[in-house]
What does this fold into?
Amino acid sequence: MKATVTISTSTGLEILAVSVDDYDPFVIIAVRDVTIQLTRDECRTVADALRAAALREPYEAAPNLLA
It folds into this structure.
């Protein structure tokens, strides 16, 4: 089985693509014209960072350290 996902602009220009085969140890990430191979562990680390960023409140301000 091959898992893929792409994100494109409204005009159809591909911005990001992620692809992986079941038995391939690498995940292929393409950002515009750059292709990167990540190990599964590296991919999990990136996914955790993206998930954390996605869960933040919009325009979240830093806590006031002087209060």
